[in-house]
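Thread: Stage V sporulation protein AE, structure

OP (GT): Posting the sequence first so everyone is looking at the same thing. Length is 117 residues per the record. Can we get the structure tokens written out before standup tomorrow? I want them in the notebook alongside the other entries.
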Amino acid sequence: MEKFIWAFIIGGLVCVIGQLLMDVVKLTPAHTMCTLVVAGAILGGFGLYDRFVEFAGAGVSVPISSFGNQLVKGALQEAEQNGIIGVLTGIFEVTSAGISAAIIFGFLASLVFRPKG
């Protein structure tokens, strides 16, 4: 039960940081998203993001910052096995399922729902 509480608190803090970037720093939503992805990548590169995942679970594995962590993790894993070319292939290998799902479900949603505008 305690892990659920920490996931809620830490995930909420990630959202608060994103909201503060938009409200106080006046970043656009796109800049805020990129900032969170880069922050996740930097934390993942230093091996800190996995510690957050162990502690808070879905609280940090669901937000967009996790995407940055996965990019770096995939690049580092493939670089160990395949050298410098692994940096490029690793990024695509680790994230391809999530990106493909987003494209497919976005397309299916566009068939079902009509945009207002």
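GT: Both are above now. Quick notes for whoever picks this up: The mean pLDDT is 88. The two ends are 44 Å apart (CA to CA).
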